[in-house]
């Protein structure tokens, strides 16, 4: 099924997510699309941004590569000093995160399941990944919003000589003595293959390594806004991108979407 | 606890780090708060079979993460490029793209290095625990994920938690803005990060600072690491071009 | 999280603390860092069956502990004299002499109060754990003593450790020198003590401060409690004679 | 046996202990005799004092009751601000203590056993006590020195109406519904009764509630200096107060003292 209308830009995804951030909230934005949300916060809404490396209350950034390396955010960018900021160390920063004191986090995802499980730190065929603050944020933040493209590109068939991890997971020990071995395409990707070029990221069960279970509250993509019901009660399609309908969104989704009577079109003004 | 903690050169400060040592490297990832001169001295010291403990590791060189424009970033990858480290315990050792391969990922792919990937909050809490006399603790982070593998799981308030153990080291290399004659350290901005906790968690703590002031030269309200934790201090040359 | 955290009176700030609440009271014991005005307001509020969490408790009134000369010390004993509290969890509730009997000891002797005596390091770590999302931890402190009674014992590195649980509260009354419009708190000297940890560990955190400044009025390097933890701020009258 | 010579003053006990504090050490002094040690530190020895409430590097105090309540020590006294001080909160203070970063602590005691067990927080007949920082300090400090009078006064027989605790230990619940009950003198005190007026504090086994097991390295009293050998290997009498000998010290001690050939007389200049 061809796309019925253009997909949204990364900026539009961020713009839609930004509306979910309530006035006064303390917010941690992941790298990528999530970080863009700060550019689209509605007028009158004041947020307090927290970053894992120990900063609360930053705002504008210096142009790329400029600024003071002693005032960084968790994405490695340099925010300007702004009134009301607080600096603290990583112990305090993760006490804040783990203790549930962050109101909302916006993260990217590789897969989200119909139960709200999140996988966003390792592509299994790579065999090694970066967890960073994602597990602490996803596990312990009051509201976890995923901002991502609805589908991923299907991987090209891997040449036999390609490098692949040993699948040992978190403790990634050196490759087996025989050296790297070729892997066939990951079974997930076959199961969730939608077309020759696209793989679903919203799936029945994640088979990528999890970041946290049942943590996601909402998914905003380039074609839809989806609520994740608590206690594994599934996914509800709330909004579609202009020109998209429930059927066309479902076609790019490998988990069953519940479609309520009040399905809306995303507004992006 | 030596009273005179000042060491003249970076080389002297790391000279007794032996083969096989476990070494914490402070900061977050990026230039700010990274003990870059100590790292370079340790590399030049030529020691082998190091286990490193860091956070974001080996990324800056590839992506410029946390480094100002126009400089060639230095990160923990130098110990893998040189073959001196064969293990790292960290939270963020690889880029988002399989095509941007760090020295650490390369060493791992080639079977030269073991990489233990730990959630950042668990990593810093384990380091803190080592310094704070806490043998182990229960955190909800990582439950139901590959991190739980081999961990004791226990339910508190209806939620699964993992038992995580203190993570000490033989040496910690930390970076601060200023030190005083007592070894008190003052940090600025986000350059705290992993430094204060690491300064409590190693048998020998070596601090790289921009400036040393006499007793009374630091505001007692601004001490990030009380001197009791610090064994050695090395001062950078004024005007050192490295951030 | 309310954006405007300023509350006009101490009475208003504690008005919704209900009978049976668990209330943390910051400071160490002594005048410095003690939320004395909030305590007096809570007493006057008349609520009953409180469980208090404090450190040195009920001692100052008898011994002048931590109070400047010439003032009539106020301490947590006021809630036991008034019959409002029937339990306290603390580290130091009685004097060194059986003949110097605090209001807390008196209430205990008369069967009006339960007193849970916790080693100070375990107490503050349990409070921190509650704020930091750590469900429980193992400490060597108390092993082989009456503190171990009813505790899980586990050996780490050949030493017995006790499993201690996070200790949260419904409300925390804390004291700081200054606050800004975001609820960031700045402490001075030893008036930190239990305040920063308690400010992370209660559902509602109420701060008593000497002064509030606009956004930008506090040094970001000197924030002891980031505003994210603070729900309400009450400012003392200038020239309040109480320390 | 009458005392062969005067017992030392509290100041003299503190003076002797002060010599045990090595140059450059970080030291935590308990209240009472331990706090007096700071007055007798030998010339040329610099110590860093730590107090549980979050202060490192204090020195001189203001006269009693004067000073700034925002700069207190753990005994409730007000030290002057001095160069090189550091302030921190109780979390950090006990991380420092529990983590083993304090070199020496000097504490008072109710009882010390021949294995180095320490009891210093509750008199059993009182039924309630104050632990404060003592358990953390005693359990985790590299070297624990006890400064105390060698014996305690024997308690007067308690009148039948006297108040007594319920013996519930650490969680001291309210007295039994029948109200407070009279207790006979504590059996310890009978066992360790040396004369009609004195009870031993150095004992075979503590029967007061413990502060920590096998933690004490040295005991300095008003008549002797005693080393506690590691691994429960007993007590060695190192020095006696002027005019006292091993026999007269042993007579006031309810645990066996080993007396080496090199027994010395305490010098207090």
SSE blueprint:
The complex is a heterotetramer, with two copies of chain A (269 residues) and two copies of chain B (243 residues).
Chain A: H1 10-18, E1 26-29, H2 33-36, E2 48-51, E3 55-58, E4 86-87, H3 90-98, E5 104-107, E6 111-113, E7 118-119, H4 134-140, E8 143-147, E9 151-153, E10 171-172, H5 187-191, E11 198-200, E12 202-203, E13 218-220, E14 224-228, E15 235-240, H6 246-251, E16 257-258, E17 264-265
Parallel strand pairs in A: 1-2, 1-5, 5-8, 6-12, 8-13, 15-16, 15-17
Antiparallel strand pairs in A: 2-3, 3-4, 6-7, 9-11, 13-14, 14-15
Chain B: H1 10-14, E1 22-25, H2 36-45, E2 50-53, H3 60-63, H4 78-81, E3 85-90, H5 103-109, E4 114-117, H6 120-132, E5 136-139, E6 153-156, E7 159-165, E8 169-180, E9 185-186, H7 195-201, E10 202-213, E11 232-235
Parallel strand pairs in B: 1-2, 1-8, 2-3, 3-4, 8-10, 10-11
Antiparallel strand pairs in B: 5-7, 6-7, 8-9
Helix pairs in contact in B: 6-7
Task: Characterise this structure.
The complex is a heterotetramer, with two copies of chain A (269 residues) and two copies of chain B (243 residues). By secondary structure, chain A is of the alpha/beta class. Chain A is built from six helices and 17 strands. In chain A, strands 1, 2, 3, 4, 5, 8, 13, 14, 15, 16 and 17 form an eleven-stranded mixed β-sheet that branches. A three-stranded mixed β-sheet of chain A has the order 7-6-12, with no helix packed on it. Chain A is globular, with a radius of gyration of 19 Å. Mean pLDDT of chain A is 90; it is low at 160-169 and 174-185. Chain B has 243 residues and is of the alpha/beta class. Chain B has a single domain (10-235), classed as Glutaconate Coenzyme A-transferase (3-Layer(aba) Sandwich). In chain B, strands 1, 2, 3, 4, 8, 9, 10 and 11 form an eight-stranded mixed β-sheet that branches. In chain B, strand 6 and strand 7 form a beta hairpin. Chains in contact: A-B, A-C, B-C, B-D, C-D. At the A-B interface, helix 3, helix 4 and strand 10 of A face helix 5, strand 4, helix 6 and helix 7 of B. Strand 10 of chain A pairs antiparallel with strand 4 (114-117) of chain B.
């Amino acid at each position: 099924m061809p796309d019925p209308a253009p997909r949204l830009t990364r900026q539009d995804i961020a713009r839609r997510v930004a509306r979910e951030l309530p006035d006064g909230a303390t917010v941690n934005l992941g790298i990528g699309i999530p970080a863009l949300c700060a550019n689209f916060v509605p007028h009158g809404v004041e947020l307090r941004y927290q970053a894992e490396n120990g900063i609360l209350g930053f705002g504008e950034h210096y142009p790329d590569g400029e600024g003071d390396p002693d005032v960084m955010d968790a994405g490695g960018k340099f925010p300007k000093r702004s009134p009301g900021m607080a600096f603290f160390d990583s112990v305090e920063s993760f006490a804040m995160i783990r203790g549930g004191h962050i109101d909302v986090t916006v993260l990217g995802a590789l897969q989200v399941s119909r139960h709200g499980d999140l996988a966003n730190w390792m592509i299994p065929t790579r065999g090694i990944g970066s967890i960073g603050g994602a597990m602490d944020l996803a596990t312990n933040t009051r509201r976890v919003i995923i901002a991502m493209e609805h589908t991923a590109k299907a991987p090209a068939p891997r040449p036999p000589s390609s490098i692949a991890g040993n699948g040992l997971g978190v403790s990634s020990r050196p490759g087996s003595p025989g050296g790297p071995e070729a892997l066939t395409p990951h079974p997930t990707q076959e199961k969730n293959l939608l077309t020759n070029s696209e793989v679903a990221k919203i799936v029945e069960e994640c088979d990528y390594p999890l970041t946290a279970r049942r943590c996601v509250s909402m998914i905003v993509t380039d074609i839809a806004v989806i609520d994740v019901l608590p206690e594994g009660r599934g996914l509800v399609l709330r909004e579609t991108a202009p020109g998209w309908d429930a059927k066309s969104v479902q076609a790019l989704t490998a988990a069953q979407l519940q479609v309520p009577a009040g399905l809306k079109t995303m507004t992006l003004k | 606890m030596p009273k005179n903690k000042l060491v003249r050169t970076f080389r002297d400060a790391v000279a007794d780090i032996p083969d096989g040592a476990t070494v914490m490297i402070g900061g977050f990832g990026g230039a700010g708060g990274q003990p870059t001169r100590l790292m370079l001295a340790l590399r030049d010291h030529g020691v082998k079979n190091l286990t490193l403990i860091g956070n974001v590791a080996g990324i800056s060189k590839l992506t410029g993460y946390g480094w100002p424009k126009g400089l060639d970033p230095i990160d923990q990858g130098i110990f893998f490029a040189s073959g001196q480290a064969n293990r790292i315990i960290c939270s963020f050792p690889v880029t988002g793209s399989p095509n941007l391969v760090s020295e650490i990922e390369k060493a791992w792919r080639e079977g030269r290095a073991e990489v233990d990937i730990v959630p950042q909050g668990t990593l810093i809490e384990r380091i803190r625990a080592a310094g704070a006399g806490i043998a182990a603790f229960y955190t909800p982070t990582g439950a139901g994920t590959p991190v739980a593998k081999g961990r004791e799981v226990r339910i508190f308030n209806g939620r699964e938690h993992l038992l995580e153990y203190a993570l000490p080291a033989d040496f910690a290399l930390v970076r601060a803005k200023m030190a005083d004659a007592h070894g008190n350290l003052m940090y600025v901005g986000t350059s705290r990060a992993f430094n204060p906790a690491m300064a409590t968690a190693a048998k020998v703590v070596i601090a790289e600072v921009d400036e040393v002031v006499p007793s009374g030269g630091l505001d007692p309200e601004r001490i990030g690491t009380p001197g009791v934790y610090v064994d050695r201090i090395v001062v950078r040359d004024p005007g050192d071009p490295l951030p």
